[in-house]
Amino acid sequence: MSDIKRYFGYAAVVIAALLLGRWYSRERDRLLYKGEPWIKSWTSVPGIIILVILAILIAAKIYKG
Length: 65
Fold this sequence. Notes:
Elements: H1 2-34, H2 45-64
Helix pairs in contact: 1-2
């Protein structure tokens, strides 16, 4: 039973990552279509969420060793 719960947790993380990735991709494409520089996509909401998640993961890795 605990394996099933673990797999549901993994599936939830994968689905959330896919949704965030698609959202970021749509924002990036929209900004590039407007003629904005590519770096501008990192200042959109999904870009900031991705950067915050990366910062948390890096901090956790440094903290836990």
